[in-house]
Design brief:
The protein is α/β, with parallel strands linked by helices and 209 residues long. Helices cover 47% and strands 14% of the residues. It has a 6-stranded parallel β-sheet, with helices on both faces.
């Protein structure tokens, strides 16, 4: 059996995906929201973590793997001798999400427009330690490679794009207000924007957030 932890904050999609995967005889599926995944990961010790990389909370992608580590085992991981394999669900044209997943050493990347069979193939492949990349995401990877923003800057900008104030962004990312302001100043400088609103507009048009 391949133990799968599905992390998605949209309830209807999370339930539908969990039901789809749960029909497979070789998959044991657990679903969780981003704020619940550490406890679920500790309880289930997944072989594969399937995550919604478009969510700004995916800044904590690396923590998905760390949460799944058996205590005292460190980087040796689970029964297979590897850490949980990370499989990112991304939207084509969102290089920011690809960048976050890549920085977290994701082993697989599946477009949200892919067929269910593609997702199943990806899960089975990454569970063996093999890489899986949807061909439709190739251009997105090229765009991601050219992005000037860091993973943390992208996370700050993604939350700012949703209208979150400095204090809320700081709380969500476990940062102090001053650090968030420094990240925003860096984003404005790197994007050549006039201000925060302009930085969001430029980044959204480029598909970064």
């Amino acid at each position: 059996m391949i133990r799968v932890l599905l992390v998605h904050d949209i309830g209807l999609l999370r339930s539908a995906l969990a039901a789809l995967l749960g029909r497979e005889h070789d998959l044991e599926v657990t679903a969780a929201t981003w704020d619940k995944f550490p406890a679920r990961a500790q309880a289930t010790r997944p072989d594969v973590c399937v995550v919604d990389a478009d969510n700004p909370a995916s800044d904590s992608l690396t923590a998905v793997l760390e949460a799944a580590e058996p205590e005292g085992r460190g980087a040796q991981g689970l029964r297979s001798g590897r850490r949980s394999a990370l499989l990112a669900l991304v939207t084509a044209g969102r290089p920011g999400a690809l960048r976050r997943a890549f920085d977290a050493s994701a082993l697989g990347y599946v477009s949200k427009n892919a067929t269910p069979q593609r997702l199943l193939d990806a899960i089975r492949k990454v569970s063996k330690g093999e890489r899986f990349v949807d061909e439709s995401l190739a251009f997105g990877f090229m765009q991601a490679a050219e992005m000037p923003l860091t993973q943390r800057e992208l996370s700050v900008l993604s939350l700012a794009a949703e209208g979150a104030p400095i204090a809320e962004i700081a709380k969500s990312l476990h940062l102090c207000n001053g650090t968030v302001r420094n990240y925003m100043a860096s984003v404005i400088r790197k994007t050549g924007a006039r201000n925060r609103i302009d930085a969001v507009r430029i980044s959204q048009s480029a598909g970064w957030v």
